[in-house]
Amino acid sequence: MSQQYIIQVKQLALAFEDGTAFSFNDINIKRGKITGIIGANGSGKTTFVEAVLGLKNPSKADVMIDGMAQKDFFTSMKNRKNLGSQLQVFAFSEQVKVNEMVKLHKALYGTQSKRVYDDLSLAEIANKRLDKLSGGQKQRVNLFMALAHMPKLITLDEPSSALDKAMAEKLIDLLKYMVTEHQCSIIMITHHPYELDICDEVMSVYAGTKAYHETRDTFINEIIGAYHAQIFTEEGEKNDKKTIETAIDNIKHIKRHFHQNGQIDIYGSAEMEGDFLSLVKQHGLKSYSFGQTNSADILKISTSNEG
């Protein structure tokens, strides 16, 4: 198996009693990169990550982690110490203090990063019991336990959830540092544009399977479209909407367009700008925009029926 990849999934299938089924095939996640996993709620993002981590019971599994079969990887204490996972569930006893959690981490892993401790501002809550912490403070402890030993492989499930803006920005800088300076590999489930901004690759999950897995730039330029035009429609313009959408079909260099929540979104290359502005002028449209596609657009499409 190639050492270029930290995770290789040839086949991974899961079926549940309620009839829900997931199937993931031919997924290669690069070493030393940040891979963002996106998709609508219930699409299978968390199920995929937890199955890779051995927390689910798949019906079929052919998974390699760091060049080893999944089962062999988890039988080694050394390998488990090179893994860090932040799950959505806060799974620690809430009767202990934060500083006791810090000591427990050091006892478990034998090493601990002062930068992670400082960036997550644990000193200011060190003497508090976990049951006295806010949601954001608990998330900081959760992240510390996953990151402080600078593990080779890190999985994060909406890591900035419950964090305030300042702490979320510190976390983003910390993750970039861990990849750049310590060659960590990060798999991150995300619904936030600022998290997706730092991802090298993007894997889109739709209806229980992989829809796309590309570099972020390829995802934008070739799958979605590097430019995004919007037309904001008003109530009472229903007759015009059909005319406008018919006109949009005639614009060259469009990759996709759809109507939702009172606006029409159009994605394509820069060359569509001239035809788009002509349409705006022809129909006397006053509310519109044209600009480059960004992470918010990627997330919007991945969580819609257009994903």
Low-confidence stretches: none
Largest sheet: 6 strands, mixed
Quickly give the CATH architecture of the largest domain: 3-Layer(aba) Sandwich
Radius of gyration: 22 Å
**What is the total tally of β strands?**
14
Number of domains: 2
| CATH homologous superfamily grouping of the largest domain | P-loop containing nucleotide triphosphate hydrolases
Q: State the separation between the terminal residues, measured CA to CA.
A: 31 Å
Report the structural category: alpha/beta
CATH topology of the largest domain: Rossmann fold
SSE order, one letter for each helix or strand: EEEHEEHHEHHHEHEHEEHEHEEHEH
The CATH class assignment of the largest domain is: Alpha Beta
Q: How large is the share of residues in beta strands?
A: 25-35%
Count of DSSP-assigned helices: 12
Order of strands, widest sheet: 6-7-8-3-9-10
What best-fitting shape do the alpha-carbon axes yield?
Answer: globular
Name the helicity range. Answer: 25-40%
Roughly what is the average pLDDT, rounded to an integer?
93
